[in-house]
Amino acid sequence: MLAIERRNAILEKLRIEKRVVVSELSQIYDVSEETIRRDLEKLENDGFATKSYGGAVLNENTNLEFPFNVRKKWNVAEKQKIAEIISGMVGDGEQIILDASSTAVAIVKQLKEKKNLTLITNSVEIIIETADMLSEWKILSTGGILKESGLALVGPQTEKMLRSYHVDKVIISAKAVWKDAGFFDSDEFHAASKRTMLRSAKEKILAVDSSKFGNTAFAKIGSFSDINTVVTDREPPQEWLGFFREQGIRCLYPESAP
Question: Considering the chain, what is the average pLDDT of its residues?
Fold first, then answer.
């Protein structure tokens, strides 16, 4: 196991259990306790953990972005439900934009049965995932600065490229959806890219699992007037359904999807 893979595994264990112990991690990963201490020091320097005697505890007050390879293992079943709904919304020959979220990766896997799609994305993971579709699809990368945490291309070059196109559908995700303010990401560069994406399509779809409702995060992506449709993994509470109706937003979930 590479050091970065081990640190990601430790971070996921820390996220779930809230604390880890050096001696236990040393046995699990078959490395010295000194190696584990260096791993925990790196996680502390990155803002994810606080070292304690014999281990570390999760820094729960962080707005930092968890590494993509950690996040893509979260809520897998929920992302699959969202992907199945969105697959039914995308037709052959359409032009779409997908962001660099782990939800978008699940969506693009489900879309592989579609023919003649044009796909624009700033996701390195999606570009790799769709390499076997080059004979069927037209795939455009935004270019930009590579952001390690999300395997995403971001920055002025990304936004310039996105402004050059207008597509049928844009599909983005968010870290938090808050009725009083809109929807948010934990990273301002990701948020800026997603804002630009929303200006580039007729139909603007927010794909978020149910854990995101009622939360807040650091960087605002947009307001509810910026989207047409919300797709989620289960029926939201009635207060949210009523709110979406008031906003003129279609809300789709497994029981409601056609």
Answer: 90
